[in-house]
Design brief:
This is G-protein coupled receptors family 1 profile domain-containing protein. One of its GO terms (biological process) is G protein-coupled receptor signaling pathway. InterPro entries: GPCR_Rhodpsn (IPR000276), GPCR_Rhodpsn_7TM (IPR017452), TAAR (IPR050569). The chain has about 300 residues and is mostly helical. It has one domain: Rhopdopsin 7-helix transmembrane proteins, CATH 1.20.1070. The longest helix is centred in the N-terminal third of the chain and has 39 residues. The chain has 9 helices and no strands.
Length: about 300
């Protein structure tokens, strides 16, 4: 009887390890395809795609670093904020999630100028501005991640949980790295939506070429808004849990917290599929890379469909 009890959990653990390892591989391969596509094909050397590249790098690091750590800790019942390695995992989680949302925020600004102020787009959003956006996004994210580790180490010096550390970890941190940027992005995309609606009503009055460009920009905005929507679906439950955790009378079960954590990590796997579904040129780039044609000739200047 005891042997059966021991075997069943072992089988479940093996299945979970295989499933989570598969998610990690898919996340790494998908985001590598996005990174190689943008880096190799000159058609994709645009400010918008540079920001998508930065987002893909963050998602790639999730697959390489956070997935293995989470696999080890989730299946060994590691409690949050107990032990240095758990703090390191939390730091990587928060750093990369903050980086993702900062990149999404930059992408929303890029889309705002592309759709709402198209005549000013090339002067306002150029490669130099995009580089500054990316550096600032990663810099802020790293500082937030370091702050989480410091706050976690300070907890060890308290007899209980320090009020200031609870405030930083559960209130100020989520507000700065999630809620505030999300509100900004939602406002920007609402403005873009209203402008796009006005453009759609007056599209017959514009030249055919301008109409095609406007349609392309709106499609790109719709795609990136979908990326934002998927991000919110994956991340909002976890951040709500973190925010209200100190106010609950009974602790939230660890399996629930770990499930929400894996829901957030799955976002890094989904983004490449969104690009492939909406963008014909990404599908064409992925096909050239996966088929090995990229090694058979110079396709950097190829016109992607």
């Amino acid at each position: 009887m005891d042997l059966e009890i021991e075997i069943v959990p072992s089988v479940i653990c093996v299945i979970l390890y295989f499933f989570l390892a598969l998610l990690s591989v898919i996340t790494i391969c998908g985001n590598l395809l996005v990174i190689i596509s943008i880096a190799y094909f000159k058609q994709l050397h645009t400010p918008t795609h540079s920001l998508i590249l930065s987002l893909a790098v963050a998602d790639l690091l999730v697959g390489i670093v956070v997935f293995p750590l989470s696999m080890a800790f989730s299946l060994s019942s590691c409690l949050f904020y107990e032990g240095l390695l758990c703090k390191v995992r939390a730091s990587f989680d928060i750093t990369l999630s903050t980086c993702s949302i900062m990149n999404l925020c930059c992408i929303s600004v890029d889309r705002y100028f592309a759709v709402c102020q198209p005549l000013m787009y090339r002067t306002k959003i150029n490669q130099r501005v995009v580089v500054v956006m990316i550096v600032v996004s990663w810099g802020i994210s790293v500082l937030v991640g370091i702050g989480v580790i410091i706050a976690g180490l300070n907890n060890d010096k308290c007899e209980g949980l320090c009020f200031i550390d609870i405030l930083i970890s559960n209130t100020i941190g989520p507000t700065v790295s999630f809620y505030f940027p999300v509100i900004i992005m939602l406002c920007i995309y609402l403005k873009i939506f209203l402008v796009a609606q006005r453009q759609a009503r007056s599209i017959q009055m514009a030249a055919k070429c301008a109409a095609a460009v406007s349609k392309m920009e709106r499609k790109s905005t719709k795609t990136l808004a979908t990326v934002l929507g998927v991000f919110l679906c994956c991340w909002t439950p976890s951040f709500l849990c973190i925010t209200f955790l100190p106010f609950t009378s009974s602790p939230i079960p660890v399996p629930v917290i770990e499930t929400l954590n894996w829901l957030t990590l799955s976002n890094s796997m989904l983004n490449p599929f969104i690009y492939a579904f909406f963008y014909q040129w990404f599908r064409s780039a992925f096909k050239i890379i996966v088929s090995g044609q990229i090694f058979q000739g110079n396709f950097a200047n190829s016109k992607l469909s």
